[in-house]
Design brief:
about 0% strand, mainly alpha, 2 domains, 2 helices, elongated, single chain
């Protein structure tokens, strides 16, 4: 058997491939563990179903936050305007 010295690029490429493989396996194991934990409480993850619903919920939540911030920022001015209109009418 003859040993050859590998260049740093070759070693880095091989190591990177091994690291990617380990990361993929770890992610897969973590997802399986999460699915088992959620299944214990009756929550079942589905592959792609419900993704659109979650996106709509996130958009609605973002719009709600923006609306609350806008109402809080402008609420005092609107209240003063209506009080002025009310005072002018009475």
């Amino acid at each position: 058997m003859r040993l050859q010295r590998a260049g740093p690029q070759t070693v880095n490429t091989r190591c990177a491939g091994v690291v990617r493989q380990v990361i993929r396996e770890t992610e897969k194991n973590m997802l399986v563990s999460l699915e088992c934990l959620l299944a214990r409480y009756g929550i079942v993850l589905r592959d792609e179903e419900g993704q659109g619903l979650i996106e709509y919920v996130l958009i609605a939540a973002l719009i709600s936050v923006v609306a609350i911030i806008a109402i809080t920022a402008v609420g005092g001015d609107v209240s003063r305007y209506w009080n002025t209109v009310d005072a002018a009418l009475t």
